[in-house]
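<amino_acid_chain>
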Amino acid sequence: MNTYILPDLTYEVAALEPHSDAKLLASHHDKHHAAYVEQANSTLDKLVELRSSENDDLMLLRALEKSLGFNVSGHYPHSTFWTSMRPNGGGAPDGELAAAIDDGFGSFSALQRQLNGAVTGLQGSGWGALVWEQLAGRLVVEQIYDHQANMTPASIPLLVIAGWEHAYYLQY
């Protein structure tokens, strides 16, 4: 059976300093994100076992499905988060992405304001995200509570900003 895999970072953990502390980044990736992957895979194993048994415990089935949804939806934006950052990154994009940003938001600075507002306006934990909304074929800024709530179905996160305390608490 296929399982979920913690993606490797494409840069050294210290490569984002001073903006993101190496110890913090390692903890966030190797502990927090890894826990979502581990729990998702564990839940998958339990679901396979339950579905192949004679057990008709619908409460257990619902609990396992909820656990799988929570953990996979924690894994998904974290996987995007690591690729949203890079050493010496930043600045406005060019090409097709720049054109789509201008079309959808008017300018790169307008997109930045909306993303900042999405993260700072979170009530609790979650993400600010630039997503490709497939049904309308456009870029949208979304505020994702926890992991999955308030995310448009079929949206593809292109860039996420963590609004979770474990992304910052050791450094800030």
Summary: The first strand starts at residue 126 and ends at 133.
